[in-house]
Amino acid sequence: MNFTKKLLTSAAAVGMAAVCLGNAALSAMANDGLMLGDLNNDGVVNASDAAKVLIAAASLGAGQGSGLTEAQELCADVNDDGIINASDAAQILIYAAYIGAGGSGSLYDYLHKDDATVVWSVKSYQATPGQPLTIPVTIPIAEKGMNSYTAQLYADPGLTVTKIENGTAYPDMGFVANLDDLSFAGTNYSTSEDLMAAQDSVLCYVTIMVPENATPSDTYQIGFLSATASDYSMNTYTPDTYGAAITVMG
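Now predict its structure.
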């Protein structure tokens, strides 16, 4: 699964729900989208977004419209039960407290942290126009070992990826990367045992450049197109993958 922004363009309306749920097949991105829970599109999910959810819930409860766009409604229903209510606002506030206490990952990551055995997650960042960023792809959950893996990233066309290098999770693996298609792979040549990553270790580092002509509130997505891992017996599995947003600040 690869959680990305919900697109606000009419051409992407058909895919909005699946994007919100994190479907890796829908990796088209745009600068005018919303992350799950981020109703005001400021790149942060916090009490301001929870307040918007509560206002919308009260309006719906009074028999009126939510006052939200279709994309905002999809992002407001964070527990995916088809209803915008105080439960969604509570989830946002709990997540905001978790982030405030030093937690990491998107709201979608947080809500689904118990659903997966292996998770690879790109961290969201704020940046200024023209700023270079080195973004870690972390492994918040690793309950399976591996002997090799292959993956391919998606980066918004506005971003320039200048480097993909090995991280701390599997330092002894042979690592290769191709900037032409943003693919990378690792293989364990040293032992006949599957390697286990430490929780929150870094699979790889991705260095990107934010456009010089970016303007405040522009948002660029980076995430996964594909990911496959194999153990020593050549059994394959697919890690759950989560993308991120790079938000331009003034």
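Helices lie at 16-21, 47-61, 70-76, 86-100, 107-111.
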